[in-house]
Design goal:
Elements lengths: L3 E4 L1 H8 L3 H16 L7 E2 L6 E6 L2 E8 L4 E9 L8
Parallel strand pairs: 1-5
Antiparallel strand pairs: 2-3, 3-4, 4-5
């Protein structure tokens, strides 16, 4: 049971701006999310129904899970001190 992973336009742009080595690490983590959207170390964000975050070094990947459709949507990627602003 593999989830389909989608990136919002904003998340794709944020990923493209990161250093190449960080991009690779994030892509690997996102592929792991497709297999298991709630791995150990994942944190469900407060004040949200289905938004989660994973750590990749100093960066965070925020994503939503739609279990009915088996879709994971990456909504935001950024440095840990900036990613939660405007949430």
């Amino acid at each position: 049971m593999t989830y389909q992973v989608e990136f919002t336009r904003k998340a794709s742009k944020q990923l493209a701006k990161l250093p190449e080595n960080v991009q690779q690490r994030i892509k690997i983590k996102v592929e792991e999310i497709a297999e298991n959207p709630r791995p150990s170390g994942v944190v469900k964000l407060e004040n949200s129904n289905n938004r989660y975050r994973i750590r990749v070094g100093d960066y965070r990947v925020l994503y939503e899970i739609i279990d009915d459709l088996l879709i994971v949507t990456v909504v935001k990627i950024g440095h840990r001190r900036e990613v939660y602003q405007d949430e």
